[in-house]
Write a structure and sequence with these properties.
It is a single chain. With 270 residues, the protein is of the alpha/beta class. It has ten helices and eight strands. Helix content is 40%, strand content 11%. A four-stranded parallel β-sheet has the order 3-2-1-8. A four-stranded mixed β-sheet has the order 4-5-7-6, with no helix packed on it. α6 (133-139) links the parallel β4 (121-122) and β5 (144-145).
Length: 270
């Protein structure tokens, strides 16, 4: 089984990929390319879970509406405002217990208001968490979490806090794919400042090599009857080759059973 996921951010965040997109395609935005991403998922009958910041729902609901209304999409939480981590791009905390609880409460509230139902799936912005995060999420109604990077875990697992975790067990796009201003030179500079502590590799790859790794890892996990949790950001996949590789991978994924994050509970490892 394959759980395709993506992260979607409000345009006012102004992160690097958004700036790169605006400079070259001022007619587009992260939300607009995310809509096209969803249309391609619909075309190939592939389910996807899009972890979305609360500010996206609050500030850009009209643009986001087609995503929320898609039959192939589950909307998950991605913090309300993409809180800054305490140390580097993949830091270890999104703030104090009270700050995190307030952020989760805001995310849950705007999701309920816009979507008309509660969200149950979550991925922290930047994959950030600390000793308080999972307890807060459970108490606020989240049941599924996907923010661990571990290529050795092929099955979801239940955590002590009650959450079901389905780790990112397939190579991610943004941190391991040359795209936009992520060049070999920029990667070396980043590695010098923030050595990778959140994933099994620190290398980045051209799109063709990256896609082959994705295919190989998905195939291996399926052979073990696990759940391949894939992270492909809509904006990253657009910037790298305007969805050419995305569509090729969707064709491959469509040959397997695809599930939403909220469906991984049926495949918890023993």
């Amino acid at each position: 089984m394959i759980c395709l996921t993506g992260d979607v951010h409000h345009d006012s965040l102004g992160w690097s990929d958004q700036k790169f997109l605006r400079a070259r395609r001022p007619d587009l935005s992260e939300i607009k390319v995310s809509v096209e991403y969803v249309r391609l998922c619909e075309k190939h009958g592939v389910k996807c879970t899009l972890y979305t910041t609360g500010k996206t729902l609050a500030e850009q609901w009209d643009a986001f509406g087609p995503i929320a209304g898609s039959a192939v999409v589950e909307v998950g939480g991605h913090t309300y405002g993409a809180l800054e981590a305490t140390s580097g791009p993949h830091g270890r905390s999104h703030g104090t217990y009270d700050q995190q609880r307030q952020d989760v409460a805001q995310m849950m509230s705007i999701a309920r208001q816009r979507l008309g139902k509660d969200i149950v799936s979550w991925r922290g912005h930047g994959l950030v968490r600390d000793e308080h995060t999972y307890k807060i999420l459970w108490e606020m109604g989240i049941r599924y979490i996907s923010d661990e990077v571990n290529w050795d875990k092929t099955h979801p697992e239940r955590l002590a806090e009650g959450l079901i975790s389905h780790p990112l067990n397939v190579i991610m796009d943004h941190d391991h794919l040359y795209h936009a201003d992520r060049t070999p030179e920029s990667v070396k500079r980043t590695q010098a400042r923030w050595p990778s502590h959140y994933g099994p590799v620190s290398e980045s790859y051209p799109i063709g090599d990256w896609a082959r790794i994705v295919e190989d890892q998905v195939r291996r996990i399926e052979e073990e009857e696990g759940v391949a949790t894939v992270l492909m950001h809509p904006i990253c996949m657009f910037l790298v080759d305007e969805f050419q590789t995305l569509e090729r991978l969707l064709k491959l994924f469509s040959q397997s059973k695809t599930i939403w994050a909220r469906e991984v509970g049926g495949v918890v490892g023993t």
